[in-house]
Amino acid sequence: MRLFENLLNIPQNHLIEQAIKEGYIPIGYTCSYVPEVMLSIGKLFPVRVRAPGVAGTEIADTYLSSVICSYARSSLEFFMEGHYDFFGGWVFTASCDHLRRLYDNMVYLKKHPFMHILDVPHKSGKAGKKWLKEELDIFRNAIADHFGVNMDDTALGVAITEYNGLVALLKDIGDMRKCPDPPFTGTEFHHLMLASMIAPPKAAAVLAKQFREELANRKNIQKYRARMMVVGGNLDDPTYTSIIESQGGLVVADRYCTGSIPHLTTISNNRDPLSAITEHTFARTDCPRMMADFDGRIKRIMDAIRDYHVDGIVLEAIKFCDTWGAESSPLVSTLREAGVPVLRIEREYHLGGEGQLKTRVQAFIESMGK
Amino acid sequence: MAKIKPGLKDSLVFTQYSVLIWYYIVKLVIRHGPYDMVRDIIRYPWILDLLKVNGLLYRLTRDRSGEYRKAVSLTVLTIARQIAELLERAFHESDKLILHEDLVPPEIFYAMGLKPWTIEAMGLVIPMLEPRGMERYIDACENEGFPADICSFVKSAVGMILEEHLPPTSIPIVTSNMPCDGGMSSYSIITKKRKIPAYFLDVPYQFHDERAVEYFVGELKEMIAWLEKNSPGKMDWDSLRDRLQKRNRMVEMEMEMWEMIRQKPAPMAAEPIYLSHLWAYNNFPGSSISVELFEKLAQMTRKNMEMGIPAVRNEKYRTLLWNPPTAHFFDLFVWAEKAYGVTCLMDMLSYNRQPLIDTSSPETMLNGLARNIMDGPMVRHTRGPAENYLDDIFRIYKTFHLDMIWVAGHIGCKNSWALSGVLREMCRDKGIPLLIIEYDLCDPRITAREGIIRQVETFMDNVMKAPRLNQSIMKRIPV
After folding, report:
1. Which residue from A65, A117, A128 is facing B418, i.e. has the nearest CB?
2. Per-residue pLDDT, B473
3. pLDDT, tens digit (0-9, with 9 covering 90-100), for B146-159
4. Closest Cβ–Cβ partner in A67, A128, A289 for B149
5. pLDDT value, residue A1
């Protein structure tokens, strides 16, 4: 945990500051459908938008209203307060109503010279892939024009190789959670995953290597009551994971926007880069905003339960999230019909109600007979 | 200005249309058979609420007169006739019945010989007739774990499916990503409950270019091929051409009406403008009855215009109603006309800016349908960028010479709420009075009609400084 100290509690952490001093340009992005690999080229590096420690969303509520997901509201609040002024550009996706309207409000309130929104289709068939590839081509040209960065296929190929290196490293660590007694907690891994999204890729790789080296000298964790999987939307505060683990759960699988499942998949290097990134964008994100794939999502959850030897699932969704909110109901019933214990939690983006959460997790673990 | 106070002739109009409505109800009962009708009322208890249609007719025609009263009555009668037709489909043609999401246009289904039924339709119709009619379905949906904050229109549809109160069919469902995430995502639970597959149409976010049209035409073609494989429907392009030509006729009539109501005071207003569109375009586009409705509405508007008769006597303020209408307080404008002389000239769900479809070939028809769907009302506003939403409001304001903007702030319409701050500031900058009514589309427990009235009164008294035209009207409204 020492490695990640002071990294996650402010948007502009010391690694980002260092990179900016060296002439690099951080690009903020709000959704897992943004291909970070296309922002990891030349002097650019991607930074996932977070609002750590947000105290309230009074200004954002004036614009977005209080019925919008608190991640969008918190991000707008930080945006208005100037916490993201260090970003050299912004990339959004039309992934859900809330993030679309976040983009609309940001454009209206304080338009940044580079704000790009990607139109990701709601289906990943042949036509959907063609559409996304064209979108990525438009995106590539927009980046190249604005930042003067070489975005040709060769440059993208190099970026893919570097990206795959980081992913392989993280996956190597993440796969240790499949063992009966992994050497690290879910909270630690959550820190690592987030660090990889908010630090320049090279610095993130250094952190991951240091973390892996540390593991060699550790004892495996044997004292836990149940192996848990967290499923849901954006979860970028590791304190949630630590609360689950404080009650005897060991979070061995993280299937949420900022988690590793199915996020940690490599990009093919054997085809043209944009086609490979298109395939990868659909494959590494498992959001209920994709239509006609409910059964697929269930299957992938069941696969993860098997691979990670999961005893129970904590299903978390931010209040007002339509896609996860609506999906949760059939998801819970389907999983329970399959004999999987599920705890459903509706939460806010910022941490609150820790006591309630502890009690619910404790009761859930007890209900599993663990 | 001609005198247009309701008189004996107007009373006779009400009687005439009430009798006609009963005629279609009795006809349905006779055709279906009294025993089967009772059995189906037990199976689908909301049918009883439909019998309150003359109550709606009364509420929407009181204090209105002349051609305006006739136009409102005709609109209600048409809906009653077409609902009777829908019920007949459910009772007698269930082998061809196809359930679809409300913004998926049914023209193609008709042309395939299928019988479309909009899953969400009753979520609007029932509260118009019985304000509390959807509460049981909303509760059923929430009890299943569906979030309370999702749109009640969506929850009503899900609740009806969960309660098995929609007609059965073995034909797959057709749905889409329109108009919002809540609506789109609800189909996971709907298809799970129904245990039938669904086809999902995908409208791109940026749809104002040929690339989007090509993508969505591809979606439509794929849907047709999928339905030909998975349903008894077969595509008949001549049938589609005929329907789209009739639909074009409806559009021509509607455009003419829109042109006429730009005049001050307007020769037609409120439900004949927006309820007619809302119902006929979404459920029966290009049907003979719908064409007849629009031809007669245009005729009545023309007549009023030629005679210099305004729809709303003492028209003082002209407005639009943005967002979905106040379904459980559907006579809002009957009250507002009387109380303040407020005339509603347009609503979000009617404002379609892609009117005519080229019917010369299958390709042009699909192309035209694709443009209409993607750029259709609500889809354009809630799916696309903010400009679509905001620019249309100010375009309507200018085109129809409005005095103010009313937004029906349906609490479940989150992506509209997310633009309320921007809209408020833009209206302030332009000096346009803006009222955002907080309410819920289908659930009067959130804001009852009295609550809506109070919000309007506060706005009219404090912002518009409008003198109340008729104090006695409040006596009729229970508080």
Report:
1. A65
2. 56
3. 999 999 999 999 99
4. A67
5. 67
Domain count, chain B: 1
Residue with tokens 């061995």: A252
How confident is the model over A89-101, as pLDDT tens digits? 999 999 999 999 9
Tokens of A99: 């993030």
Is residue B461 a part of any domain in this protein?
Answer: yes
* Cβ neighbours around B399 below 10 Å, total: 16
- What pLDDT sits at residue B2? 43
Domain for residue B1, yes or no? no
Residue B3 lies in a domain: no
% of chain B residues with pLDDT over 70: 97
Asked if B455 and B435 count as a contact pair (C-beta separation under 8 A), the reply is: yes
Any domain includes B291: yes
pLDDT, average across residues A8-32: 96
The pLDDT score that the predictor gives to residue B10 is: 86
Contacts 24+ apart (CB under 8 A), B59-63: B59/B330, B59/B331, B59/B334, B60/B271, B60/B330, B60/B331, B60/B334, B61/B10, B61/B13, B61/B14, B62/B6, B62/B334, B63/B6, B63/B334, B63/B337, B63/B338
Element containing residue B317 per DSSP (H, E): strand B317-322
Contacts of residue A80 in chain B, CB cutoff 8 Å?
A: none
For residue A326, give the nearest of B188, B386, B421 by CB distance.
B188
The number of residues in chain B equals 479
Confidence band of B242 (pLDDT split at 50, 70, 90):
very high
Q: Is B147 in contact with A123 (Cβ distance < 8 A)? A: no
> What global pTM score does this model have?
0.95
Does B1 score more than 60 pLDDT? Answer: no
| Collapsed DSSP state (helix, strand, coil) of residue B361 | coil
Q: Give, rounded to a whole angstrom, the gap between the first and last alpha carbons of chain B.
A: 35
Establish if A111 touches chain B: CB-CB under 8 angstroms: no
Terminal CA-to-CA distance of chain A, rounded, Å? 27
Instruction: Tell me the residue range of the domain where B423 lies.
Output: 8-476
Q: Which residues, numbered 312 to 331 in chain A, qualify as contacts with chain B under a Cβ-Cβ cut-off of 8 Å?
A: 319-320, 322-323, 325-331
Closest to B438 in 3D by CA, of B461, B463, B420: B420
Would the CA dihedral through B318, B320, B326, B330 be positive or negative? positive
